[in-house]
Amino acid sequence: MTWLITGGAGYIGAHVVRDLLDAGEQAIVLDDLSTGSRDVVPEDAGFVQGSVLDAALLDRVFREHRIAGVIHIAGKKRVEESVARPLYYYRENVDGLRTLLDAMVAAGVRRLVFSSSAAVYGMPDVDLVHEDTPCAPINPYGESKLVGEWLIRAAAEAHGIAYASLRYFNVAGAARPELADRGAFNLIPMVFDRIGEGLPPRIFGTDYATPDGTCVRDFIHVQDLAAAHIAAARRLAADPEARLTLNVGRGEGTSVRAMVDLIAEVTGTAGLGVETAARRPGDPARVVAASARIERELGFTARFDVRAMVESAWAGRLARVGAVGR
């Protein structure tokens, strides 16, 4: 079966593409390379440079490559940027998805794995966030993902599309050093950037109602996240009636301070200490996934702990710094 992976040259997408190929499937990557890198796309995957907003290009890709299903990862994901540029985020994330669905329906493609986000929940006041927890996103990024889920659900009812909307929690780590996150928008690479400059890691908010006063998050290894995509793709291939909305997390919370301490231990930079700052607006105290539904529906259970995430991310950082220095 041939799958189209949008955003397949990005951090998460590159992991999904490799796992898909290892599973014996064929992969065509569509990526505009605005944040992705062509060099992470395997040679045995097809590659098309372009945007999901390009309807004519999508029609050609579906026609020429006999696409049987789509894994839609392309999109914009920076919360602060979404607040400053809401129209841009709605265009990229919502109109991009609408254009993709139009092309899928026209081509008769009826399988879709969608990259959603825990940001759809907003600031839930619960110990564990279940898929049925009310969604109340607090920024345009989260809104765009929730609207995307609604759009997929409506299209599925109208056109018989089997889908799995995967609500990612905090993604970290790398399966291989060359696939490590090259951005600086998540906690671990942000801390790496600080210690790379000889500066102490910065923690925003130390007065939350949590055991150590810092935010608690559910971190998921990107290799586990990729495995969840493959499990979802297999389910859709076997079950044309599947209509799934699933959390992808470990069901375990780790505080920001505990994660920063672990990073210092792994990198040998404990001597830098920690710098604290005021809370950032909109940061919920605790967001941890309930993971029973994805285990029940897909047989998926995360395998990697937070130490594996930090160690693999650090190996990627060292490899990239070494490559630049040569």
UniProtKB/TrEMBL annotation:
EC number: 5.1.3.2
Similarity section: Belongs to the NAD(P)-dependent epimerase/dehydratase family.
Highest rank taxon of the organism: Bacteria
Domain NAD-dependent epimerase/dehydratase: 3-249
Key words, A-Z: Carbohydrate metabolism, Isomerase, NAD
Catalytic activity: UDP-alpha-D-glucose = UDP-alpha-D-galactose
NCBIfam families: galE
Cofactor: NAD(+)
InterPro entries the UniProt entry points to: Epimerase_deHydtase (IPR001509), NAD(P)-bd_dom_sf (IPR036291), UDP_G4E (IPR005886)
Protein name: UDP-glucose 4-epimerase
Biological or metabolic pathway of the protein: Carbohydrate metabolism; galactose metabolism
